[in-house]
Fold this protein.
Amino acid sequence: MDANRDRMVDEREFLAGGGSKDEFDRYDRNRDGVLDEAEMERRAVDKLHDQEETRAAAQGDSDLKRMDTNKDHVVSEQEFLNAGGSKDEFKLYDENRDGVLDGAEMAKRAAAQASAESDTKLMDANRDRMVDEREFLAGGGSKDEFDRYDRNKDGVLDEAEMERRAADKLHDQEETRAAAQGDSDLKRMDTNKDHVVSEQEFLNAGGSKDEFKLYDENRDGVLDGAEMAKRAAAQASAESDTKLMDANRDRMVDEREL
């Protein structure tokens, strides 16, 4: 994209390279009219994350179809157990506690399994498909973390324990991304620089009164950093769910797709 070789990408170059104005504005965090190395790196990280999500969604959908013997488009606990899963694993991914795993929850399971497999390959020096404490420490982990995930205290992290660690890491990463996006949105909307977003600032930025009310949890008339992070997390979750359900790619979910 960097046509003039100044090691930055301005808006014209970005659009010429196939990007959109919305995307440029999203990554131009300091509003200087160019994307510098750090901002382009953030964009690349997000693209990689989107690719990982797409792969996880496809694998989760495949697993769901394989386990869903009664064809109701969700996986009950009994179906999960019949397919070789455990009660602990089912509970780990049933985030809304409704007694079934839907497409989004199965996608998160697939993402955690892929991450656990990658981490195990990196750490498992003796190739026994488990990670002992020495290997874990050599791979950058801590003794406290090892002890936390070695739930049966046998001195190694097996596939299930590495998967639980990966699921927790993915959750932490989601929270970190949401906090960063919420902070970016707050700075963009906060025109009077008081470190919160008033209702008028929110409306000026394209939001609605209903959306403002939804996230103003303490009813103080402004959105602070924590509330903006929750908005960013909800938007990311909604985008992920839409990608999973939107079979005709019209960016909406009809009743049949739902």
Summary: The mean pLDDT is 93. The first strand starts at residue 9 and ends at 10.
